Amino acid sequence: MNSERLWILVLALVCFLAGLAGGLLAADRIRPHAPTGPFAGYVASFADTFDLDEERTRDLRFLMDRYHRDIEDLKARHVQGMEDELIQLGDICRDRIKTYVLPVDRHDEYDLLAAGFHPPGEDAK
Questions:
Q1: Cα R_g (the chain), whole angstroms
Q2: Which of 22, 57, 88, 92 could disulfide-link to 47, CB 3.0 to 4.6 Å?
Q3: Residue range 55-83: mean pLDDT, rounded
Q4: Which of 12, 64, 59, 67 is nearest to 36 (CA)?
Q5: Which DSSP helix (H) or strand (E) runs through 52?
């Protein structure tokens, strides 16, 4: 009789541990992970400012990752006159964001923000 109780207790413990492990794995897959990287804060702020959906935010994240890789490649080459190429890379990245991420009706607002101006009625942050 004692052995039956022991086996039931062992079975209950194994079931509990299996359920706990499965729950933790499922929760990890369901919970969205915060993006990381050197431009993660910029992407989050930009997505909030322009109310980007998930697809456009993913596209922006991709472009910013590519921009970061381009900068790192440029640094690795130690090119003379690196400032001009950095400016050119920044311009290319801004054009890609404007073309591939933002809706057409928000291009003027983005141009103002990129130039350092804030739309009327909004205070500088």
A1: 25
A2: 57
A3: 85
A4: 64
A5: none
